[in-house]
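Thread: "does anyone have the structure for this chain?"

Original post by V.I.:
We have the sequence but no experimental structure in hand. Need at least a predicted one for the grant figures.
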Amino acid sequence: MSGVVTKFAVTSMVMWMAPVAIMYGFYYQVFPGASQMSSSAQTLASGFLAIISVNLVIGLFIFMAMKEAPHQEPLPDPTFLTNAKASINQPPSSQVSDDSKGKGKVE
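Reply from O.Q.:
Generated one for you, tokens below.
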């Protein structure tokens, strides 16, 4: 359980830090070619890349979660199985009650 919490915490931090780092990089022109872009183009590019980075982090988290959980077929209840097998092995019995002993007759 602690592994799940750790992965969630790490991906949550990356989901906050990646867009901020991208916005910072465009604002301070850390990325090559960012200085040649206009101010509005820098804002649009940094915004789109920040959104894409968040979606990539979410996708990575989902991929890790799907990879972690093994696919198992649901197993039936063992008590139900033993009762079902026992009922199959029993000889068939008549479920119609015999009323020949006089039950239900009014004298």
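V.I.: this helps a lot. The helical segments are 2-27, 39-68, 78-89.
O.Q.: and The chain has a mean pLDDT of 84.
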